Each structure stands twice: as C-alpha cells, then as structure tokens.
Amino acid sequence: MWEVLLLAVVISSISPSQGLYQVTSKENYTSYGNTENKDLSNSSFDEILDKCRQENPSSSRRTLTLCLRSHGVTAWEERRERRAVERNGKANCGKRYKLMAGAKRTFQVKGNENFCKVFFEPRGKAELQLVCRKFDLSNCDEEYLEVTDQDSKEKYCNNEGPDTRKGLRKVRLTYKKVSEVSDKPNILCVVKGVKASGGGGSSGVTQAPGCDQVCGKAPSSAGAPRIVGGQASQPGEYPWMVRLTIIVGASSILCGGSIITSLHIITAAHCFIYDSTPEVIVVAGEHNIETEDESNTQAISAKKITLHPKFDATTAANDIAVITLQSPLEWTDNVGPICLPPDKTFGGSEAVITGWGLLDSQESTFPDELQEAGVTVFDQGECKSAHALSNFPVTNKQICAADPGQIACKGDSGGPLVTKENGIWLLLGVTSFGPGDCTTDVPGVYTRVSAYSKWILNKVSSGSC
C-alpha cells in the first residue's frame, strides 16, 4: 500500500524569528475521523427512516418498508408516522408533514416551549424550500434551532438564522432550550412545497444567483501548456483563485480555494480539521505572495466555515467545504467567480490545476508566483484502479487528473481543477489528496464538484454576483 498524503501544508511558527515547514501526514490527517456505527435500537422513527433511505437511496417502497421492519418499526407505527396534513397553517410540534407543490406550513416558536421538533418531506414531484422571516434567540449555550436536511445538520442562535434553502428532499426543524433565558424566543420559518426544479447535480447547470452571466470568465492567456513540472502563471489569468491562510494557535496552514459568489469560497474540508476553531484569511487577486501590491489584492476574514456533514477524514470522502466571508469581494480584472459544472464525467478532458504548493516535495521549495499545470482528466475506471490499493479508495464523487510531471502537491489543498468548455471555465474538482512523494505514478484525486452542486447552492444562497 503506497502512502497517501493530504495536500495541506502546516507552517509551525516556533518563534517570531524562526519557522519551519511541516507537511501534514496521513497519521495526523486521519486522527480526526469519525467511524461511529450508530445503534438504532433506541432511535426515533425519523432517525430509522433516514438510515434506511441512506442505505437504499434509489430503492422501491417495498425495500424501504423491509428496512424499517428490520429495525423494529411495525406496520401500524409506519402508517401512523406517514400520515400527513397538507393544509396550509401552523406546524405542530412532534408532527410530520408531507407537502405537495403549493402547500406550506409555518414553524413558529415565540412562547414558553422548551423543545419543538417538526419533520417535513415533499409529496409527489415536489421539493421543499425553507425561508426564515423572523429569528431572534439567545446564545447557543442557552437555546438554538437545529436545521437538518438531506445534506447537512446545522445549529443557529442569537439573531443569525438560516439562509433560504431550496431543492430540499427533507427538512427537520428542532428548537431546544438548554437553560432558562430572560427573553422569549422569536422564530418564524416557512416550509413550502414547490415544483421540483431538477437543478444542481442534475444534467442541467444552475449557478448561484446572478452568477451565470459573470462566472468562468478569464483572459485568453489562461490555460496551461503541457510543460513538465508546470510554470508560473500570468497575473490575473485565474481570477477565481484565492489563497487561504489558516491560523491555528502559533501555526499557519496554506490552502487554496475558488470564488463561487462575492461572499463564498469553495475549498477542501481537510484544511480545517483542528481541535480549535481557526482564524481564516482569504486573499483574492494575488499572484506573487512576496510582492506588496495591495492595489490588486483583497484580503477578507472568514465569517463562517461549513464542512460537508459527511466528510470523513479517514477516507477523504466528501472533502469539500464552503467559506462565507465577512464582507463581499469586489469584481475586478483579477477577481471573479468560477462556474459550477454540469453533471458529466469529463474523462479525457484537458484541465488546469493552480496553486502555491510545493514545486519539489524532496526539497520543500515553495514558489512566490501562482503556478499552473496542464493535466488530463482520467477515465473513472482508471481512476479507481490507480487508487485501488491506497488507504483512500476513490468513489464516483471524486475525479482523478495528472500528466507526466504534472500533479498537485503539498500546499495545493482546496485549490481548483478547472476546464474550459464553450468559452467558459468550469470548476471540476477541489484538490484533495495524492501520492506522498507528489510523483505522477498515480494521479491526484479531487472532490468532484458536480456531485455536490445542490449542497453548494444551498450553502451559497445568501451570496450573489
């Protein structure tokens, strides 16, 4: 089994006058994994149903029923839990609602409730949309609202409620009061059944609001030749490229990322697997990190970091994250968004990787200028075969790319794998992992962005272009 290294680089600052580069190893990467196998014997119907749906995502009603029976759910319990009222009105705590297109229910907490949980799912060809119109709670130690959909589970408190979410296959809203609070909670959220759009992760391509006319634009010089080892890019060639400085205690970690909206960056989840919450500074428009030219760069701190809820550090599965910025980026010749891709394999396509990662893993040489390298996207079967003996097996939610002498290396984590189609640049992948010595005997592996389009669009709904 050959060694796999995640491609983030840790710069440990021993003192202000001394520093050294430490490459994140497999051992400290995998130590944060969660391989919990949940016992469902005391679980609620909702939890058992979720588990059965995950195990049988495309199965028939009969298969789903058999799974429920195997976990101890009786036919009477199933019929009782599946009953749903589709009238418009207030959603009652402890109830389950199925909403067809045009139906809606209001989740409201403004009294003395200590706990309220409501589950929603669509009926027929509908999907769900969540909009919170009022949100005012105390801090998370006292009370919170938990929002669970098919892709994520997040807690909200204070006066920062959830953004609008669309394209949902299920929604669970849970309010919980942890301790006594002086002010009453004030939550008003509406869950609507709407006609399924089919966008995000399907054959069609949906961009963030207002971004389809401005994303994926770059100078004609963008695109890397097949030069072994890559080369320095030209300033402004890849306006979606950002550099992430991730500060954890006395250490600083280098990762890359891609601009999706003026408020959101796509990067790798493994850049943030630390015991404490890091400080993250996003720099856009940068080319030479040693040149003090602030007129071309924009440095903004991260407001929120959202890891994919199913990210697994032990396998690098679902290695993707969304950064929400404290203030919006301004579009310039050097700063602009990349487009999300259609749901295609792109096998055999010519693509480009960019980053400030190591030029030579043996010599620990980092470049000053943003580097570019031309690579070829592997056929998915070849991709899986190349990593069959690795400790990070490849799935259909990942994509491989490399060429002789051309591969991402340590420090390139989170950066983009892009290709140009019909004159528009598309974000195919997020740099995830590769061979420890950064050779091209096996290809580098990237998180396949098209597999997460719907999740991304839900997380960036507050942004625009």
UniProtKB/TrEMBL annotation:
Localization of this protein: Secreted
Cited PROSITE patterns: TRYPSIN_DOM, TRYPSIN_HIS
SMART domains: Tryp_SPc
Gene Ontology biological process terms, A to Z: proteolysis
Keyword match Cytoplasm: no
Signal peptide: 1-19
Domain of life: Eukaryota
Keywords: Disulfide bond, Hydrolase, Protease, Secreted, Serine protease, Signal
Residue ranges of every copy of the Peptidase S1 domain listed in the record: 227-461
One cellular-component annotation, GO: extracellular region
GO MF: serine-type endopeptidase activity
Membrane-crossing segments per the record: none
Name this polypeptide is given: Putative coagulation factor XI
